[in-house]
Design goal:
heterodimer, A: about 300 residues, mainly alpha, B: about 290 residues, MetI-like fold, about 75% helix
Chain lengths: ~300, ~290
């Protein structure tokens, strides 16, 4: 369990470069064709979705897969108004912001304790975190639902944020702990000898060095919270409080059968995350792949 | 001596003070409700009002409930699909990307884009594509999501569309740590591209491969969004999974006790998988 997420960053990058150059020779034409087919599989459905968002209903019905003859940008405005996307976006901003802030505080403190303070029973709690993050949310969904109605957190964005913090902080803790383990301790020891308390140490010395780790955690958490559906659809009822995932869902399931507007609304939902991803793709991919390497 | 013990105890207390928010929110959201679910699974609770103790009745009913059997079978098919198709696509994609000279970074981004699309939007994208009036469904003259034989594979493909790029990215990260000398040695021994993949790449990334296999099994039992949005378990229960069955029992049929029993069974399956994984990882020759 102590190897959880450990030592990934310690790999010398020169070895990676050598690996890339030593193996970067021998792909044949079949490989290139297959890679292009995979790219087509990834982007094709998205491109057709963008096309459908820019058509009129009659054009979509007569030629559903083609390039729009005259792009109707007004579809986006109609979708924005009819699907109530503005309110959804505002609610999602609150939920994502609150969840990211909460997870960074909760996981930051816990990761610091697990990585730096000799915590009695810390190893056992790490194992518990691994098990707890593999429990199906459906298992505790029902009791949680009735607990939330009883303590007044049902149908509130704050209640949703608390659940997301509970769901996302174990993984964030494992990620940040691994990051802290790669940072040398000398700075902290020096500050400790100067008589700094632990909280001061964490905020003044560790936090600035650990900022890239926190950024990674923030991105992964933001993506999860923004896209989350099961908890949102269960715990938020009031249409004025719906985050985007459920705003879009109710628009799609609602009376409208206008697929052009559904397309436009879907693109409005995807756009913020897509832009964030394209702007910070390296950190994004690094964070998400460390999710996959977490057990190594 | 006692001063040293006191100092250590004090540092331990400070440590747990830093842990407190995590422990508290986890207990409130995950641990407490999970323990409650175990209790409610032994009652006839409707979700409202009082719960009456019924012992193992819910579990006995599960054992003979055809809906549960069908959903479990669909989950097993689902797991098998995700262990084979996306794993193969991810391994091939990542390995091929290490072998091309140009466009590696671009293709990695392209493959990864569907992963960041929200599940509700992914469902909408494919609902249009598969609909009998628009797109592929019209070309093939078939209502894919309304066909009891095609609906489950179709939803699996939709879920996979948003999933396999993640595997490419993770496998690629693991493959870049493979010692390049091993490839040279294998090439000298006459190994072709596939031989190098089989004898060098795959053994070198075994920890990642195993972990993703584990996560695939666990996550495949949690799949919910795509079925819920695309088919609601239909037509005629042909896409029902344990998660959608549980959801319906809990919130539509008001059988919270019975739904809790399904949840406990799902948790037990996860637990078996995790314990098996930890046991495999403990064997020294597997941890590299």
């Amino acid at each position: 369990m102590t190897t959880l997420l450990g030592g990934r960053r310690a790999q010398p990058t020169t070895a990676r470069r050598q690996a890339a150059s030593a193996t970067g020779q021998s792909a044949g034409p079949v490989t290139h064709v297959l890679l292009c087919l995979l790219a087509l599989f990834a982007l094709g459905p998205l491109v057709i979705f963008v096309f459908s968002a820019l058509k009129s209903q009659s054009e979509l019905a007569s030629s559903p897969l083609s390039v729009p003859s005259a792009p109707r940008w007004g579809n986006f405005l109609n979708a924005w108004q009819q699907a109530n996307m503005g309110a959804g976006l505002a609610n999602s901003a609150i939920v994502v912001g609150g969840t990211v802030a909460g997870v960074c505080v909760i996981a930051g403190g816990a990761a610091y304790a697990l990585a730096r303070l000799e915590l009695p029973g810390g190893g056992g709690y790490l194992s518990y975190l691994l098990v707890s993050s593999s429990l199906p949310p459906q298992m505790f969904l029902v009791p949680l639902f009735y607990l939330w109605t009883r303590i007044g957190l049902y149908d509130s964005l704050f209640g949703l944020i608390v659940i997301y913090c509970g769901l996302f902080s174990p993984f964030a803790t494992l990620l940040l702990r691994a990051f802290l383990l790669t940072i040398p301790r000398e700075l902290e020891e020096a500050a400790r000898i100067d008589g700094a308390g632990e909280l001061r140490l964490l905020l003044r010395v560790v936090l600035p060095v650990a900022a890239p780790g926190f950024l990674t955690v923030a991105l992964v958490t933001a993506l999860s919270a923004y896209n989350e559906f099961l908890i949102a659809v269960t715990f938020i009822q009031d249409s004025a409080r719906l985050p985007l995932s459920t705003t879009f869902f109710s628009f799609q399931q609602g009376y409208t059968q206008d697929y052009t507007l559904i397309g436009a609304a879907g693109l409005i939902m995807v756009l913020p995350m897509l832009l964030l991803f394209l702007a910070l793709q390296r950190r994004f991919i690094e964070g998400v792949s460390s999710a996959g390497l977490a057990g190594v | 001596m006692s001063a040293a013990i006191a100092a250590r105890r004090r540092r331990g207390l400070i440590g747990w003070a830093f842990m407190l928010p995590l422990v508290a929110v986890n207990a409130l959201v995950v641990l407490g409700p999970s323990l409650a679910a175990v209790y409610f699974s032994l009652t006839d609770w409707s979700g409202i009002g009082r719960a009456h103790w019924v012992g193992l009745d819910n579990y006995r009913e599960l054992a003979s409930d055809p809906d549960f059997g069908t959903a479990l079978w669909h989950n097993l098919l689902w797991t098998a699909f995700f262990l084979v198709v996306p794993m193969a696509m991810g391994l091939f994609g990542a390995f091929a990307l290490t072998r091309i000279r140009r466009g590696r970074l671009l293709l990695r981004v392209v493959y990864f884009v569907p992963y960041i699309v929200a599940s509700v939007v992914t469902s909408a994208i494919w609902k249009n594509l598969l609909s009998p009036d628009l797109g592929i469904g019209r070309m093939l003259h078939v209502n894919v999501l309304g066909n009891i034989h095609l609906a489950l594979p179709a939803v699996e493909i939709v879920n996979n569309w948003a999933w396999w790029g993640f595997l490419v990215v993770v496998f690629l990260a693991a493959m870049r740590d493979v010692n390049p000398n091993l490839y040279e040695a294998a090439a000298l021994d006459g190994a072709g591209t596939f031989g190098q993949f089989w004898h060098v790449t795959l053994p070198s990334i075994r920890p990642t491969f195993l972990f993703l296999g584990l996560m695939t099994i666990i996550w495949s039992f949690l799949s919910f969004d795509y079925v819920y949005v695309l088919t609601q378990g239909g037509p005629a229960g042909s896409t029902d999974l344990l998660s959608t069955l549980l959801y319906r029992d809990a919130f539509a049929e008001l059988r919270a006790g019975y739904a809790s029993a399904i949840g406990v069974v799902m948790a037990l399956i996860s637990a078996v998988v995790v314990v098996g994984y930890l046991a495999v990882r403990k064997r020294k020759d597997w941890t590299v």
